[in-house]
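JOB MANIFEST
job_type = single_chain_structure
chain_count = 1
residues = 183
[input]
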Amino acid sequence: MSREKKFTISQASEITGYKTHVIRFYEKEFGLEIPRNKSGHRFFTYKEIEMLEYIKQLQEKGLSNNQIKLILKSPEIIVEQDDHTKELAVTRAHPAQTGSLENQMKTQFDQFREELRSGLSGISENIRELSDEIRAKDKDILVCENAKLKMDLKRKAYEVAELKEQLRRERSRKKSLFGNLFK
């Protein structure tokens, strides 16, 4: 029985050049299956270290974490960099599997399109709700302004009525004054 060499996370960190917290992050980020011992501590074999080295190579070629995730999930993809043009070329490892990658990409594209439609639909609904809310607030403001104007109109009507009453009293007093003079 040949036992495969096991490395601690600190040793894997020294080998790959990644800090231990980065390795833990990449375990979650890329869905890496890092084995654990009975105590629950991570241990690394050459397989896990090669995976971390592969991630490092892809990062050095300028790929984002999302692109790296796609590559790790699609083992038929090989990423090569042309040193003369400094461009990345994505090829398939097995030409017989061309349909599966195309189907996978089409499925992902369809999912993206559906998520985009659903997001736009949600945005449209939010705009409608905000528009209705603004209309309701505008209506409330107009009702309040209308009520204020009606109150002002009533106040002015009372003032006019009071002035008319004063004028009537003034005229009646003047009549009675002239009436008393000519009696």
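[summary]
The radius of gyration is 42 Å.
The CA atoms of residues 60 and 113 lie 30 Å apart.
exit_status = 0
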